[in-house]
Each structure stands twice: as C-alpha cells, then as structure tokens.
C-alpha cells in the first residue's frame, strides 16, 4: 500500500514521507482496551503482524521516512518530524516519464520473485480445485465455504513465508515447488471434507 501512495505522489509531483510509529504490541492492546468501542485484541495483533517498517536501504523510494519508537514518542521527536515534513514539502517526488524499458525490468523482477510466483501458482490451484468441486456437484453453500477455506489457506501460507515462519522446515530457501507441496499437503485434507475425490 505504501508504494501505491508514493506512486500517487510521483504522478502529481507531491511531497512524500512516511512516519512509522513503532509501538510495542502489548502497549497497543492496552491502549485499545481503554478506548470506547475497542477492537478485539486479536484484531490488533493481526494488524501489528501486517505492519511493515520502512526500509530505505532496500527501497530507495522510502528515503524520506522516520521511525519513532513509543513510548519515547515525545517532544524529542518533534524536530525530526518537522525536518521530515519540510524535506518532503521542499522536495516533491518528480514525475518520471513513462519508461517502457524500466517497466519491463520491473515486470521481470516481479515475475521472478518466489512469493509472487507462488501466489500465482496457488491461485491457479485454488481455481482448478474449485472447478473440480463444481464438476463433482458440490452444493453451492459448500462451494462457498471451500473457496473461503482455500483462499484463507493460501493467504496464511504466503504470510508465513513472507514472515519467514516456514524457513526452518528446510536448510535452503524455499522455491515455488516447495510452496506448492506445502499447500497441497494442507489443501488435500481440507478438500476431503467437501468432496471425497483424491487430489
């Protein structure tokens, strides 16, 4: 999502900066509990798991970023924040002309990314499995449940991989075939609940 905002800033030649408030999970849960209409603690935990600190070393477009650690979020951070905002305002992101060569390079990088390839492959497997379920005349309410369960399984597996939770399973980096095998292991038992055909 952050990159899309950066692209908008670039498109309209606007300033772009990021302020990341790094707050310990337990503090977030505690503060949430004190709010009227508090969210469930699990929601806060899930959202915290999705938060990603800016990484200017990896992403050059994130160079205008500031991370403020909480509870140290105080007046001490104010000059840095002011500097960040001024730098963004004084140095708008310039709109780059449409560069077909760069787009093609980016497309190749994206297509070679293991997570991207794995996601595309898993989506295809989910689609094929749903077609098989329809052909097997699985009832529409069960089709809906199966689709939701398969997509949740896909999303959870990709999130685990993104966070490195599946890495200890092997001594080398996981490739797309490894990801597909992990997915199939869990998918097959899930599918058996809805229709008995072997997968």
Automatic annotation (TrEMBL):
Presence of the UniProt keyword Nucleotide-binding in the record: yes
Transmembrane segments: none
Keyword Transferase: yes
Molecular function, one GO term: kinase activity
Pfam families on file: KTI12
Keywords, ordered alphabetically: ATP-binding, Kinase, Nucleotide-binding, Transferase
Stretches of the chain forming a coiled coil according to its record: none
Record-given protein name: L-seryl-tRNA(Sec) kinase
Species of origin: Myotis brandtii
Source organism phylogeny: Eukaryota, Metazoa, Chordata, Craniata, Vertebrata
